Amino acid sequence: MDLMLTPEQRDLGDAVRALLTGAYPTTEDRRMNTEAAPCFAEHVWSRLADMDILGLPFPEEHGGMGAGPVAVGLVAEEMGRVSPVSRSPTAPYRRAASSPRQAPAGGRASC
User: Fold this and answer.
1) How many Cβ atoms sit within 10 Å of the Cβ of residue 90?
2) C-alpha–C-alpha distance, residues 96 and 34, integer Å
3) CA atoms of 100 and 52, how far apart (whole Å)
4) pTM of this prediction?
5) Which of 56, 73, 94, 105 has its CA 20 to 30 A from that of 10?
6) Are residues 64 and 55 in contact, defined by beta-carbon separation less than 8 angstroms?
7) φ and ψ at 49, to 5 degrees?
8) Can you say whether residue 63 is alpha, beta or left, with left for phi > 0 and alpha for psi between -120 and 50 degrees?
9) Nearest CA-CA partner of 52 in 81, 16, 78
10) Dist. CA 50–CA 13, nearest whole Å
11) Using CA atoms, how far apart are residues 8 and 91, in angstroms rounded to an integer?
């Protein structure tokens, strides 16, 4: 059994890492962001959405990418590098998968 990442999986992890380390290049940046707001900044979420990262685990017929657990895990790992310890890097996936009745007013998810 080959457990090595595919080139596409490595590229995905590299792209997410580049985005997040560009947005939060130092430990001090991450600390300041955590103190100011416990979530990622809106411009970061917008970039992740532009990269179709937020739709990774959802089936294509529902507008997602239909990616498997390895791809989602790679993204969660990279998000976990810069996210506040108290927050789960998979929270946006869980929130998006919840029923519309559980969505916050105004359609904006919290962390």
Assistant:
1) 15
2) 22
3) 21
4) 0.69
5) 94
6) yes
7) -65, -40
8) left
9) 16
10) 15
11) 24
CB atoms closer than 10 angstroms to residue 96: 14
d(CA 65, CA 52): 7
- Report the C-alpha gap between 2 and 34 in whole angstroms: 38
Report the share of the chain in percent with pLDDT over 70.
69
The predicted-structure confidence for 58-90, as pLDDT tens digits, reads as follows 999 998 999 999 999 999 888 888 765 445 555
- C-beta separation of 16 from 75 below 8 A: yes
Q: 60 by DSSP, 3-state: which?
A: helix
Structure confidence at residue 70 (pLDDT): 93
Provide the CA 67 distance to its chain's centre, in angstroms: 13
Residues 6+ apart with CB under 8 A from 71: 9, 12, 56, 65
Q: What value does the mean pLDDT take over residues 14-32?
A: 86
User: Within its chain, how far is the Cα of 96 from the centroid?
Assistant: 12
Find out whether 81 and 26 touch, Cβ atoms under 8 Å: no
